[in-house]
Write a structure and sequence with these properties.
This is Galactose-3-O-sulfotransferase 2. This protein is an alpha/beta fold and 299 residues long. The chain folds into two domains: 2-30; 53-155 and 161-298, 3-Layer(aba) Sandwich (Rossmann fold), CATH 3.40.50. It has helices at residues 2-45, 63-76, 125-131, 145-156, 161-164, 169-174, 176-179, 194-198, 209-222, 232-243, 247-250, 268-277, 279-290; strands spanning 53-56, 116-117, 137-142, 225-228, 297-298. It has a five-stranded mixed beta sheet with strand order 2-1-3-4-5. Strand 1, helix 2 and strand 2 (116-117) form a beta-alpha-beta unit. Helix 12 (268-277) packs across helix 13. It is globular and about 95 Å long. The chain binds 2-acetamido-2-deoxy-beta-D-glucopyranose (5 copies). Residues 144, 286, 289-290, 294-295 line the site of one 2-acetamido-2-deoxy-beta-D-glucopyranose (NAG).
């Protein structure tokens, strides 16, 4: 009897031990679960939404949709926007941005700062900083340069000298130097490495490794986020999280996008030529498309 009682006791302790282990294990799992939930909980707890924002609006990259989101946010939150002086649509583009291109920047003396800046401009950090707060969140958007060039060709066909005299993008890419005059610099900016140009860099520079790396580092250091057009929805999720905005702040309408009608996809050979022709943009896109996350780059 005593021995079987001892056995029962041992059994009891074993069960208790198992139970304790189970609770411990469950605790671990719970802990992990809580850990997984933390970023979402943190969304609300991290503080007020970011309201000082500079968006470098690149061309033909779905950036108008982002512009619209920012304008709406500025309006609903009563924020000041750095708008172009003289009723223009852009902030001095294609010339490098100057603070005086902003409406009212010089009224009441220098030092006037704005919350939101998002119109087309050619990036020039020292001048942008003159009109934006020091804690401004900088971001931009990049698109696969092959699709970006296709879109530019359709949209700027009659404006850009390099595209004016050529019937198709295929023909242009077969012999770009026949149509592209480098000394026409600014007016041909949409015809080659246009995102590189928008970032304020030389779009005609040879794509040498040291030069490219140095400029990519500049971009990484200046911008907190590079959205990717091909991953637009994921990009918006990431943007919302970083800015701590509400969902309805980033609900987007597609603006200014080409109708499927006008899209004539390039052949694989022409795509390769486009990558070569826009080698700087190709490096830029490749770098930020793979920096982190599924298609979203965050430095
Ligand atoms: C909006 O901002 C302006 C100037 O920053 C201020 O004068 C005005 O009272 C604000 N309006 C609301 C509704 O908060
Ligand atoms: C386009 O072609 C016409 C006639 O061939 C020529 O006069 C004109 O200079 C060309 N324009 C450009 C931008 O090359
Ligand atoms: C390129 O543009 C410059 C400046 O307008 C002009 O002098 C030159 O003749 C052009 N070159 C070609 C090959 O058209
Ligand atoms: C992105 O979101 C929009 C609107 O919510 C939706 O219509 C579209 O199908 C989504 N695109 C992708 C690729 O998920
Ligand atoms: C961009 O990144 C995505 C996801 O990693 C990848 O599938 C895609 O091939 C990349 N695009 C290019 C053009 O490299």
């Amino acid at each position: 009897m005593p021995s079987s009682l001892g056995g029962l006791q041992r059994c009891f302790w074993a069960v208790l031990l198992l139970l304790a282990l189970a609770v411990l294990l469950l605790g671990c799992i719970m802990h992990v679960d809580i850990g997984l939930l933390m970023p979402q909980l943190g969304d609300q707890a991290d503080g007020p939404p970011v309201t000082n924002v500079m968006f470098l609006k690149t061309h033909k990259t779905a950036s108008s949709t982002v512009l619209n989101i920012l304008y709406r946010f500025a309006e609903t939150h009563n924020l000041s926007a750095a708008l172009p002086a003289g009723g223009r649509f852009h902030l001095g583009y294609p010339w490098l941005f100057l603070a005086r291109y902003v409406e009212g920047a010089e009224q009441g003396g220098p030092g006037r700062r704005f919350n939101i800046m998002c119109n087309h401009l050619r990036f020039n950090p020292p001048e942008v900083q003159k009109v934006m707060h020091s804690d401004t969140f900088y971001f931009s958007i990049l698109r696969n340069p092959v699709f970006q060039l296709e879109s530019s060709f359709v949209y700027y066909k009659s404006h850009v000298p390099a595209f004016r005299n050529v019937s198709s993008l295929d023909a242009f890419l077969a012999s770009p130097w026949t149509y592209y005059n480098q000394s026409l610099g600014l007016s041909n900016a949409h015809a080659r490495n246009s995102m590189w140009f928008d970032l304020g860099f030389d779009n005609g520079a040879p794509p040498e490794e040291g030069y490219v790396r140095a400029r990519l580092l500049d971009v990484e250091q200046r911008f907190q986020l590079l959205l990717i057009t091909e991953h637009f929805n994921e990009s918006m999720v990431l943007l919302r999280r970083l800015l701590r905005w509400r969902l309805d702040d980033v609900v987007a309408f597609r603006l200014n996008s080409r109708s499927q009608h006008s899209v004539t996809p390039l052949s694989p050979a022409c795509q390769e030529r486009a990558k070569h022709w826009c080698a700087l943009d190709w490096r830029l896109y490749q770098h930020f498309n793979r920096t982190s996350g599924p298609g979203c780059a965050q430095s």
